[in-house]
Design goal:
Layout (H helix, E strand, L loop, with lengths): L3 H33 L36 H12 L11 H4 L46 H10 L8 H9 L2 H11 L6 H12 L8 H6 L7 H10 L20 E2 L13 H4 L8 E2 L21 H10 L23 H11 L5 H5 L8
Antiparallel strand pairs: 1-2
Helix pairs in contact: 2-6, 2-7, 4-7, 9-12
Amino acid sequence: MYNLDLILSVNSIFISFVRFSTLLTIALFFSCQKTNEKEIPGHGYIYDPKPFELNIPTAFPVMIIPVDNPLTEEGIALGRKLFHDPILSADNSQSCASCHLQDFSFSDPNRLSTGIDGIEGKRNAMALINVGWLSHLNWDGIAKSLEEQAFEPVTNPVEMHNTWTEAVASLKNDSTYKRMFFEAFGTLDFDSTQVVKAIAQFERTLISSNSKWDRYLRGEVSLTQSESRGFEIFFTEKGDCFHCHTTILFTDNDFHNNGLDAAFADSGLYKVTGDPNDLGRFRTPTLRNAIFSAPYMHDGRFQTLEEVINFYSEGLQYSETIDPLMKNVDAGGVQLTEEEKFYLIAFLKTLTDSSYIQNSFYAPFN
């Protein structure tokens, strides 16, 4: 004889278990369905980008991030790989990092930057420091965003000398890039737009804020007597540096004819605007990490900070578009003594952030 109550009890437990299993199966099914919506069948690529929040340093302004290109961990990783990879050039020999070397604060130690065909350009590649805050890029300001700036070198015949069609095709033939583009942007049908967006994301992370000057502002260290004297020269009419190299970024992000030449082999901003008043005007470079970013000026004519200071002290040349901020032009400049030049260089060296050029987050992938 079977115990009816026991059978009913066991049966009830079994039914409950079946119901629970069914509900669990349904839940897992829909959960998998939700995940599969972000996957590519047969590849396992998953699009689930993680937002990346920049750590904005004390006293720095807010960085404006384009609405259509928010920072993500996946986008930055992709941009970092692209920045260091010569795959974008026509012969796979040159990357962004070829002219923007981290050891030199992402600038070019050569006087003039050279492309894949061995042709010298007319300018020295500018240092990439805190570029996420800049509203104009390149010496002539032709690019108004990091995304816009990244388009040009790939097709420039003096630089990477490629076509975007060929560059994108190379990327699509690489399984690692196919996965990374999907993870960053959710598509395998990417084009140059996604390429420059990724590079721009990486470049916005290139932040330098740990120089002695920064630590001084945070109350962590004191300046030496020589550095303090140099500070006074820099931020007064005596040295007259502060008008152009202003704000925590040490650039006004504006354009000036600083008296380099009486006539112009390179017309600067005029090439972009066509305005004769812009002849010989170039964007103000940052002075952060200046000891790493030689040579100086748009054409790399000065090899040392001493040469730069000597120029502003007694080497200015008059032209019709010279900036009114250039003082005492008839005498060649601000007329600093040798002692004052020494103090000024001592201050400029406080803008050095060695951790920036050693930051492994900016380096190529191993």
